[in-house]
Amino acid sequence: MKLVTAVVRPERVNAISTALERFGVNGLTVSQASGYGRQRGHTEVYRGAEYNSDLLPKVRLEVLANEDALGGVMAAIEEGGRTGHFGDGKIWIIEVHDAVRVRTGERGASAIA
Fold it and tell me: Nearest 5°: CA angle at 102, between 99 and 92?
């Protein structure tokens, strides 16, 4: 099992969620986040005063996936999240040794199905 984590633009969450549902993903965790990458934030004007905002609003998505579904999950996140501009985000994968469905006690791959 793998944990696929992505940090993406907030306005792309619905498109990513739709793409994941089409692929057959049953569960998704979404968290508010903020950060920056190469774009290093942006400059804003508020009441005539200019200021720099180093941390941009982002969303962190997490999906548990079996090894055989990994490529499709990543492709769905890429498809839904890509705008072609700086700040589209990142995806990374972490090994998961075990998972438990609390309600039923199921473990491993059956806990995430």
Answer: 35
